[in-house]
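> @MW can you paste both from yesterday?
MW: sure, first one:
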Amino acid sequence: MKRLLAALAFALAANASASGLADHGEDLFKREETTVKLTGFFRVRGDWLHNLDLDRGTTPSGRPLYPVPLGDPTAQDLFVADMRLRTDLAIYAPFAAAAVKVRADLVDDLVLGSTPALSPGTGTAPTPAASPGQVPNTLLRIKRAYGEVLTPIGYFAAGRMGNLWGLGMYANGGDCLDCNLGDQADRLAFVTAIAGHLWAFAYDFSSVAPTQLRKDSQRSLVFDPSSNVSSFTFALMNIKDPLARERRRKAGRWTFEYGAYLSYRWQKNDIPEAYLVVAQPRALTPSSVMERGFRAGVVDGWFRLQTPLFRLEAEAAFVLAESAQASLIPGALLRDPVQAFQAGAAVELQFGTEADFFTGGVNTGLASGDPAPGFGAFPPSGSTPTPGELDAPQVDVPRDVRVDNFRFHPDYRIDRILFAEIIGTVTDAFYVKPWARARLLQFTSSQLGLKVDGTLTRALFASSTPGNDASLGVELHAALSWDSKDGFDVLAEYAVLFPLAGLDNPAQGLSAQPAQLGRVRLAWRF
């Protein structure tokens, strides 16, 4: 058992930025006194966005594909700069293999200049600013807070923690310098090592029904447990730590790793009045509760093959879901359930390693689609499926009761313009992305590198595109990076999208024109 627990410890990650079921525990060992470790980064980014509406007119709803300047809708350029200060704090208890970890984003994607105080007599000092979705007048956003302990039978964690699996195509913790979102889970997790594998079990408090204060006016009470959304996940993994993989590669050996997880989510009842905007709010009563009958299952498999010459890594996920009653109005029931069958896959092939002067490879992926108009990535509120729209709901009860488009996690980015900015994520599409990276200059503690890539994308259903054509576009991208071991990095990148017929506007007789993006990022890592 000691050997298995040692395998568990070394297979799991080392700091508070750990995100997944396979990313905890390596740093847990007995210490003589309380130890505190702080890591994180500060980044500042500036974006130049040119013609992201593609000069192809508006969709049937009257909206362009991308926002345009309000003062001059014919103008081409938008500019924005933002910043984030991320801190990952780990507090290790003495005399035990236990820790408490916290991720706090002190400034979270704050747009520079968005909240200045410029009234006479106040000077130009910015006021306390809030990131999107935060309580006003606060800069602090707690992303994660959880405790963990390594016991003789395995690893146990409880609290709000990151959620990452495989390549991050479906579940992504958002730990990279340019990530914007990241998944967090209110979770109880247990991982143990048996027969050379890691076995993980997790229960998630995915969502709870409305709460009310208890007698002490401090604690809250969930007063309808039947409306809670719960999830249970099981994962089986055979993985190595990065040092072990590198040792085996240098010794000319192959390393094969793999994992699979099954997740099931369910909700019996629902209280739509608790989260929908209503004209006249009223107190919740038993009549506010309605049957939902929601259930969803996810099967996800991942593997990585590392050889002395190349790395091949792939992930595939399948989602089955059903909502027995999709109505949001108590008493107004629908006859047919809404169902979904979605599938997505991503493959990464890399020749060489990060230490080599030149590396290259090809990435490819596919996300299942739905024949309904629009991509269904982030449908605008109140919209309906309309041919010619860029985005729209994929369900139109009672005529269409299926939602079959799979959505990649937005932090698993394969381009800079089409999916990252215009559509929002990869869905209802197939892509191929060859790439190459070269080290131009090498110094003792820093290096200058250049990466170039090109992405060809096609929709799976022509009916989903604004131009009613499966061909979406070709995007070229180049990035020049200065990476330093001292903790300061600079990235400058440029991308151009050449749109194809799927982004044209046949109703107005307009062809989509190229779009461009430029970005500069400064990052301080600690």
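MW: second:
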Amino acid sequence: MWNLPDPPATTHFADHEHRLLALLLFTLYLVLWPGWSEIVAQAILLGHFVLFFVWQWSRSHHNHPQTQQQTQRWHNVLLLPLVAAMVVFFHSGVIILWKLMLLGILAGRYAPHLRTRLLNVLMLAFLLFDVFGFNLPLLLELTLWSPDILDIARYLMLIAPVVVFLVKPDNSVEPRENMDFFHALSAFLLSLNLLFGVLLLVKLMALSYVQAVSYATGGLLLAVLMLSGLWLNFAAHDNLQQLWSRHLLNLGHHFEQWLASLTQPGTYKTLSPEQFLESGLQQLNSIPWLCGIGWQSPYGHGALGQESKHKAMIAVQSLDVAVYSPTRISRSYYAHVKLLVQLLEHFHQAKRREEAFAQQAHLKAIHETGAKLTHDIKNLLQSLYVITSAIEGAQPQHFGDTQRLLQGQLPHLSQRLKRTLDKLQQPTQSVYTNIPIRTWWDNLQARYRKRSIEFSMSIMWNANIPEDLFDNVVENLLENALNKRKRESELRIRVALETSENQVKLTVCDNGSKVSKDIEKQLLNQPVPSRDGFGIGLYQAAKQTIHTGYRLHISHNQAGQVCFELASV
């Protein structure tokens, strides 16, 4: 269904690990071979430990990151004195304990495939039979086999290392961190308990060796069953499968790695939603007990790894995922990978919403810029209308005054038109032209001299002001007041300017009806409903003051006195 690609054919340590293990078993088996001198046994044991360290180094080099490789090397260095002591002070009892430790290490290896598990069971059986069939009776000086049978059995035992050496395990999935300390420790302690049980039964109760092994094995199984029953009674919500599942110790680590990698700022911010989703699924495939993954998303379908007969389907919102495992997928495993897929889809949807919000913000910025420029053009057209009205109503004997008005206002109008065109080309840049306030005030009075507006001033300091800002604010306020006069014919409009060395204050007032409370709260913060325009003029003007050092606010709002004030802060 998912068309998973074939894994690349690579040669690495996993292809030869079984041969190293076979040599480890073979050399360790030969150490206690009867008839060797102590020097020969010590030499074989030394060769065994050399192979052991090569095996450990190879596993660390291929299955762990650099920091864990360094830690593994230090552990090997710390083992060297113990190994040297075992070689120098050679004793069969110590070799038996080492064989049980090696048995625990092999029992803790994670074997995902059937052939690998069978070879692992063969190695464990080989070590157990070697310890309890040959080494322990020899240590107790017991005769368990007749000489002929003993020789045949010893040679037949060599079949196990040969099989392990020749039969390649199924390592089609690249090995990852495949050692479970809990399994290893449990196997070592159980076999050690069995060893001490046999010793106690033989020495204290004088039982035969076969009886001692049978009783010790039965007692150990009974103890495990009793402990299991107590566990189930006192921990009703858990079960033994969870206790013996390696994910209890390892899944948290992989979960943290996956989540930390997924939420890295460099990963989360720079990738598109599609790339982010694919990156998360690729990291999901790195979980040790998965051999393949396939998915169907809004962007299409994809696959990684390889298929197997053990499969689980997970559907979360717009994402359908199929995960494949070389072993049966338990409920715990399924719940875990489902949680990871849900988290991935949650972050993916957050990325999609973030992208949608960014597009909306971009469109909003375009809309607001267009609205602001439209309003600027509207103010320019109004100023042009005022000038043309003055020309149309001028008498021939007043043409000199009209020409002076045009000479004074047309250059100013040209400059404003040029700035508006510049904003159309670069809408994100706000550049203000400063002019002396007296010049600006004279131009303002000239433009509105025939609109029945009262002007008053107290200019104590001829400060420079941002021309665009003051033009935009005053023209919006005066246009609103003039439109209000159409509804309230007796309306008086007053414009007052006060300047000092420390402050500039411009006030536009009228004696009409007050602004309603609802409109007053929104007027300078957002667009408002308007009878005469778009309702965005004062909102845009207030936004324009943010980085200029001025503030626009309503200073009075009551019937007979409605005042807007633009003042420096």
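> thanks! Residues 409 and 443 are 7 Å apart (CA to CA).
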